[in-house]
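Async update (no meeting this week)

Hi team, since we skipped the sync, here's where things stand on the single-chain job. The sequence we agreed to prioritize is pasted below, unchanged from the tracker. I ran it this morning and attached the output directly underneath so nobody has to dig for it. Comments welcome in thread, and please keep replies under the output.
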Amino acid sequence: MATAEFRHIELYGGAMTVNLPSGFADVSDIRPVPDHQEIYLSSTGFASIIFDLAERVVHLPELQEALEYHFHDIVNPGDNSKIWQSSAVQFAHFASPKVRATTSANARISYSPATPALTLVASTAPPVPPVSPLAPSSTTILMTLVRLVSKSTDLVITINLPHIESQIDTSTPSAASGLLAGQGKREDVDFENGHFGSWVEEGLRVRDEVLQTLEIKDWGLFGGEESQKQEDVEMGEDK
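Output:
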């Protein structure tokens, strides 16, 4: 259920639903977005959340390897990038429907436990300080991967938290309000020892809300029959 901090959002024409921060807006309202992506941007234009239905990386069957592949796919090769933490997580309402039937008229639907997935905390920064005052000096990336094996799809969810020094003024409160409505702050951050600072902690709260609320409403989004009769929809592991 949505709260004052979050609102209920339909993704991919209602095929998925999720709670996102109330101050985030759909980027497709202002510019074209690829059909396989949904992008939401904070009211200040800094933080963003991207849902991406990517082609499954078939040569990397392990979740950890696939997650790292998708991370390195979005960062610039010359940047100083590092994964600081990765951990197993679960989507509370993202169960795998398993339909077993001898005939289409006699289908019995059951649900597996909550779907396993993997998430990481990483950072990336250009090798030299940016010239533009609006370019980020560094970006924290919170990425989550869940694999839709039978659909040959990797669902990748990325929260981008750029730190833009020219926009930071710790002496004056931001006019924006809500989760991730401001920008990165000048504060002590120690990724190696798990101290992320308040900007990233807000991002982790948003990630956790996505894990708790994301649901697939229409499996037809991935092609084939919506009911998936005679087929198990596997998520998170191969047979």
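Quick observations from my side:
The first strand starts at residue 6 and ends at 11.
The chain has two helices and twelve strands.
Reply here if anything looks off.
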